[in-house]
Design a protein that fits this description.
The complex is a heterodimer of chains A (166) and B (186). With 166 residues, chain A is mainly alpha-helical. Chain A contains six helices and two strands, in the order ααααααββ. Chain A is 62% helix and 7% strand. A two-stranded antiparallel ribbon of chain A has the order 1-2. Chain B starts with a strand and ends with a helix. The chains are: A mainly alpha (166), B mainly beta (186).
Amino acid sequence: MGVRQKSRRISRSRSESGEKLSSGLGSWREGLEELTKLLEDTCSSMGSLNADKLLEILGLVGRLERMLETGSQQALGSGGPAKGGLESDGLLLIREYVKEAVYRFSVGDDAGSVLAEALSVANALRELGALAERGVEIIRPEDLVVVGYIDGKPIYSFRQGNSSNR
Amino acid sequence: MGSRSTRLGREIVLIDKEPEKVFIEKTGDREIHYFYWRLDLYKPFDYEPVTLLDGFLCSRYHWKGLVLWTEPVVRDKPLMTFALGVHTPLVYSRKWQVWLVYCLPELTLSERFWLGFYLTIFNALLSGVIKLPNDKVFHGYMDKAMEGEVPEVYRFRLKEWTFLIIVGSLPEKLPSPVSDRLRECG
């Protein structure tokens, strides 16, 4: 399939994906499970990769991003992710990888490695969600504070300290 | 359980997983041991290196992180597992104190995300929410060792990290390759 034909397919599929997105948001956890499953399926059957599949993944990412944007407690769950948190970075990273996969697919290059990276991030987001449900604070690098210096460079550590009794 | 010595050398750590091979790279008097898996989730190839820097156990985290383990649990050798499906080296530590030093303060989106993920894992270990299993059987790996070079992109470059993580007490003096790198940083 030539580049022009693939581009046409992508354009047509985008509207189909948009229709699907308007059907409802569901919960963050469900959406993340769905995204991970879709990426797993896609990575394990790269021979049948098509533009519709890639756009479906992007649609799911968009759905999860909108959940973070709106900050709906019902969708995100108590103690769930928040806009600007590590989860936002993860979703953006997945979006970037899938966009790269779309490009590679459209020019006939291998998209498998970048989709695998996207899947790694999705799995990490699931791990983070499971930890958050158990009460673990999700840490972003900018959450750390300077606690001293070593060889002239600032040392960062957890705001609450490193005590195991906290 | 226990390490053993072969003509290739001795184990640096004991492990509880089964890599397909362990590549041993010798440069001068330094050995780097790369634990190799053919598949890391759906990604082909994974090489997770460990070495000793001035006596400190050292591993790599997600390409750009150098990790120094200053207080490993030692049973003949430090005990190391590979966590979370992506073979992240995690050394059993007497203290889960975590310190971060940046070489380059501006991280890429990927570096920022994966650093946050790693910090959160440490936060969970520190707060006792997750515990590493203590009944695992740790073993040596020299039966899988082979001398040789790993592909260039996977080589452990001790002076090319972007951030340094120290797990355990802060050392009074950093290993010289780490200090050298910090002096070069912006």
